Amino acid sequence: MDLPRVAGGVAVELPREDPDPGDLRRSSRFVTFEGGEGAGKSSQMAGVAGRLRGLGVEVVTTREPGGCQMAERIRELVVGGGPGAFDPRAEWLLMLAARIEHLRAVIRPALARGSWVLCDRFSGSTVAYQGYGRGLDLAWMGEVHRFVQEGLEPDRVILLDVDPEVGLGRALGANRFERESSGFHRRVRAGFLAMAGADPERWRVVDAHADKAVVAEAVWRAVVMS
Fold first, then answer.
1. Is residue 39 a known part of a binding site?
2. Residue 93's closest CA among 130, 67, 135?
């Protein structure tokens, strides 16, 4: 699927100057970072968090699955083992159980006190991996996600898009998703791009093949520009 990119081609016209730091401090925002294995989500999220903190913005960084004690215990279970370790339905429901605890313990309290929340993976990854990747029913998943999240959706979703072969070459092979077939990873990428294409108001697609500095600037502007 051909989508305009923020890096390696501009998806939206973003101002060249950063917004007023006071504007960034005045309201909370929930930003999620999505993408396939080896896309660079964690490092890019850390870079954005550092820049925001440098402007005096309170930032909470977290991840899925995980982010709180109970959810991290579920993470240990769900990312371990090899391909085929779980029925796809069980895998998905474990992800959602972790999300419920994560929302309760970390995300909602942080947003309520006015913090920015930056999250490495959220519902986009669940739909891409367990929906497009595993073949679970997307409409059914959507209904359950609305129940689990109680209407909470990210204000902005940053999709770091990378060819699966490139991303897997960067990855460490430390979790079972990285050891899935190339076909699985192609379906996951297609799912991410389909979601981005269907919701261009919230999603920004960043070409993660570009130079790291170029990607970092594109990600920053996609996060802070409305």
1. yes
2. 130
Would you say 123 is a known binding-site residue? no
Was 84 annotated as part of a binding site?
no
Q: Which two tokens stand for residue 29?
A: 């925002």
Interacting residues of 45 by C-beta distance below 8 A, sequence separation 6+: 33, 61, 118, 119, 120
- Pairing type for strands 30-34 and 59-63 reads unpaired
**pTM (two decimals):** 0.90
Q: What is the pLDDT of residue 5?
A: 53
Which domains, and CATH codes, for the chain?
27-224 (3.40.50.300)
Q: What whole-number distance in Å separates Cα of residue 199 and Cα of residue 202?
A: 6
Does 41 show up as a binding residue in the annotation? yes
Position 148: which residue type?
Answer: V
The answer to whether 37 is annotated as binding is yes
DSSP for 188-209 reads HHHHHHHHHHH-TTTEEEEETT
Q: For residues 35 and 161, is the Cβ–Cβ distance under 8 A?
A: yes
27 annotated to a ligand binding site = no
Find out whether 35 is annotated in a ligand binding site: yes
pLDDT digits (tens, 9 = 90+) for 125-168: 999 999 999 999 999 999 999 999 999 999 999 999 999 999 88
Establish whether 197 is an annotated binding residue.
no
